[in-house]
Specification:
This protein has 399 residues and is of the alpha+beta class. The protein folds into two domains: 2-176, no CATH class; 189-292 and 301-396, no CATH class. It is 43% helix and 20% strand. The longest helix has 35 residues, at 236-270. 23% of the residues are buried.
Length: 399
């Protein structure tokens, strides 16, 4: 299995300048490759240029500009070109799927924050010994940079990435590991129902409260954003205000990740099998379609967009997608099984008699079966039905 590690780098002032130059030059390469593709398609009979043709030009580019392009790793520049190729592949995939495509855009220096090294030892080297308290990563053109390694890296390092977040620099490793030793079996199974009022409810009747990190920081974020909007563009004051906004967003993101990791770890340690709803979060958070007024051309009827916008903010603040991805990764490392099931009618089906009707759920929290009279919390009922569907799917799946 492949596991990722993220560590804080502690570069010197000179190394910070070299890292910034590395990002700038890779950004220039990305934009030049994008311009070549755009120009060839527009002005040369719709000619398509692919990654292989652009990668073959790297040797000439490095020889022509040794100060800016020749000093960096050849493999990292190939990774930057692959990054552009993936952007075009995603663009054409959306077109074929009938989705709204986003054409690859030019990147400014402020929005190009990552450089990838596809192989440890090719332009980079992770230098870590088990008993050495000081860990360094060697980067071509930068030197040996100190790293705050807060935990041991298990397995063989495969790829290395350097990322800038605000004024901090991070190194991200991917390591190939052998199959981990599974946790001892507990004999417990659970179904979970994701929600807004509660982060999740399980089939045992327990609830995990929704911390609402984004909502709690909304006032501070709003004030910081308003202060940014009053600053003159290009001024030092605006740059400092932008950093305060980014710092507030980073704090919320870290809080959300921390809560997701701890909640997922608790589920994985306590249960052998975990079933959850197969949520289509992107569809759930879409804006409602506009309703044209038939008697007033150019006017539209109320469509509940205000209430839907609030619901979409709550869904994004809960971070369901991030949590489910973390849960799947932790379950794989612990030898647990996670299964997604169809969420339709899970909160409307009675777990006692099986009767399904929308009248079974008169309010958001209450469930009362109109057939047998069974009452319970609606989220707990949903978790029970999710668990039963997950167990049925597990037993029906051949080993």
């Amino acid at each position: 299995m492949i596991r990722a590690y993220k560590f804080l780098m502690r570069p010197t002032m000179g190394q910070q300048g070299a890292l910034a130059e590395m990002l700038r030059d890779h950004c220039s390469l990305y934009n030049a490759a994008l311009q070549e593709r755009r120009g060839a398609y527009r002005h040369t009979s719709k000619t398509t240029i692919r990654y292989g043709e652009q990668s073959a030009q790297l040797k000439e580019i490095r020889a022509f500009d040794p100060e800016r392009q020749g000093r960096w790793s050849f493999s990292s520049q190939q990774a930057t070109l692959r990054r552009l190729d993936k952007a075009f592949a995603a663009f054409f995939r959306r077109i074929k799927a009938g989705q709204t495509p986003g054409y690859p855009r030019f990147r400014s220096g402020k929005r190009f924050d990552t450089v990838d090294f596809p192989k440890d030892g090719d332009g980079c080297r992770w230098d870590s010994t088990p008993h050495d308290p000081v860990t360094r990563v060697r980067l071509q053109g930068v030197g040996h940079v100190k790293v705050h390694r807060h935990r041991r890296v298990v397995g063989k390092v495969k790829t290395i990435s350097v990322k800038r977040e605000g004024h901090r620099w991070y190194v991200i490793l991917t390591a190939e590991q052998a199959a981990p030793e599974p946790l001892p079996a507990t004999g417990s199974v659970v179904g979970i129902d994701m929600g807004i009022s509660h982060f999740l409810a399980d089939s045992g009747g327990k609830f995990v409260p929704n911390p609402r990190h984004g909502a709690q920081a909304a006032t501070k974020l709003q004030a910081a954003q308003q202060a940014l909007s009053r600053c003159k563009r290009g001024s030092n004051r605006r740059r400092e205000a932008a950093e305060r906004v980014a710092r507030s967003h980073r704090k919320v993101r870290r809080q959300r990740l921390d809560h997701a990791h701890k909640t997922a770890l608790g589920l994985v340690r306590e249960h052998d099998f975990i079933a959850h709803e197969d949520l289509q979060i992107r569809n759930m958070s879409k804006a409602p379609a506009m309703k044209p007024a038939p008697d007033r051309p150019g006017s539209f009827l109320p469509n509940g967009s205000g209430a839907k916008a609030g619901l979409n903010r709550s869904i994004a603040d809960a971070g369901w997608g991030v949590f489910l991805a973390i849960l799947a990764a932790k379950a794989e490392g612990a030898g647990r099984q996670v299964m997604a099931v169809d969420p339709r009618n899970t909160s409307r089906r009675c777990p006692e008699c099986g009767h399904t009707a929308k009248e079974n759920r008169p309010t958001q929290d209450k469930f009362r079966c109109v057939s047998c009279g069974h009452t319970a919390h609606a989220d707990t009922v949903g978790a029970l039905n999710v668990l039963r569907a997950g167990l049925a799917r597990r037993d029906a799946t051949p080993a």
